[in-house]
Amino acid sequence: xxxxxxxxxxxxxxxxxxxxxxxxxxxxxxxxxxxxxxxxxxxxxxxxxxxxxxxxxxxxxxxxxxxxxxxxxxxxxxxxxxxxxxxxxxxxxxxxxxxxxxxxxxxxxxxxxxxxxxxxxxxxxxxxxxxxxxxxxxxxxxxxxxxxxxxxxxxxxxxxxxxxxxxxxxxxxxxxxxxxxxxxxxxxxxxxxxxxxxxxxxxxxxxxxxxxxxxxxxxxxxxxxxxxxxxxxxxxxxxxxxxxxxxxxxxxxxxxxxxxxxxxxxxxxxxxxxxxxxxxxxxxxxxxxxxxxxxxxxxxxxxxxxxxxxxxxxxxx
Length: 317
Ligand SMILES: [Zn+2]
What we know:
alpha/beta, TIM Barrel, eight-stranded parallel beta sheet, 9 helices, rod-shaped, binds zinc ion
């Protein structure tokens, strides 16, 4: 057994001091740690504690509101809603290509007109002047609300063909043109424009066409060039006098009068409409097959095209 060493009074004093220092030092460390925790709590407590409280309040206040809203919003959705009838979705405005059907040589037969009157949609009728049924045809079509133009006879290149009453010739004078057209329009009083019947020769004379255009300008009418000749100067003359004009841009519909040929010609016209944005297609009163086809195809065409009259077409230009 180890014998316990006796300490001298000096050593005992030193040892007590040592123990005191250790105790004091320990107290200091404990105090520092204690203060550190205290201040840490205080520093964070002043901001975070409020936030905690606020968050709790926020949570208490917001959550039910959201839940309530959600419930309100969801309830009608979960119910089978009837489709809104009063507020239909706005249709996309897709601009359709335009097509105009012009029926030439009207005024020659009322019998042939009957079938064309059954077409449900816009048709422009070109009435020949000074014919047996000119005035009657004008009256019927006007009551029917269709567009009427004067089918103005003009001199053709083939000298053996007579353009008929009220014709304008290659060398017609100013006075003759004005007087002739006055008479012609008395027999087609509701005409708002003209197109030419024949005229492969007359429409190539710029001076003659300028006189015709000046006359039409004075009556606030327009000129549809039937384009019976590649040498036609109607457009040029019209521009010179500031007259509204149009030019046939599609093939004639009934150069051959069987169903298949007419359908092919119409299809060609529809291609023209896609190319130019519009197509002016001309057929003739004598083509009863054309009338039957038009009655049949108008409802289908109206899905993809705007079938309009010449005045509407002019409004676009
Ligand atoms: Zn004609």
